[in-house]
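FIELD: query
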Amino acid sequence: HSEGFGGFFYAGGNTDPKNAEMVIMHLFQGGLSLTDRDDYLEEGSQEMRDKYVEHVAKMFQLIGTDEAESAKKAQGILALETQLAQNSMSRVDMRDPDRMYNMRSRKELQLSTPNFNWDNYFDAAGAPAFDDLNVAMPDYIANLNKIILNTDLSTIKDYLTWKVIHGSASMLSSDFDTENFNFYGKYLYGQEVQQPRWRRILNSTSGCLGEAIGQLYVERHFPAEAKERMLNLVDNLRVALGERIKNLD
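FIELD: result
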């Protein structure tokens, strides 16, 4: 997680939805490699799951695992991710902000998942000191405890290895990058051709240095008088919107 690779859940600091002046720790479901939990559960997505298993197996072969072992690892990873999907909150349910706000103490979190040492995790992740956090999907986290307990350690290691391969694929050699694009770009999203290398490099640079590049862009294309015009526009919109709100029943 500290290297930017997913797996099992996502934890990070963000604004408290009920107190905009506070930044708190949030804990979310996470760790699926297909686009949505329904991809693992719906009968109509069987072809996608079959192709996903083939893709995972090919990626393991590219790191030197033999064909039979790669196929076995891929099946185990699909089974594990399917369990995660079965316990994941749906997109519809996640539209309800109240369902996504469940403050817990660290002690309460640990009691709900005795098979996962959260103190070790947060210490290793370099998290600052905190007493309470928002467990956005408490049922998912509680069921994660059972999944960890009932899954072979070898499968968990395979899954975490896969998350590193998957998260690195576009930055590795062309065989990894091509296989990754063939499944995710071409099969899942219908892209016929990969973006040219220069554009992908530009996107990656912009993603890492967005603030610095933005400052250069502002210096060249957004002078002080342009900002003043926009501030006037925003102020006028606020006045107009305020007048409309006052006249609403």
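FIELD: remark
The mean pLDDT is 95.
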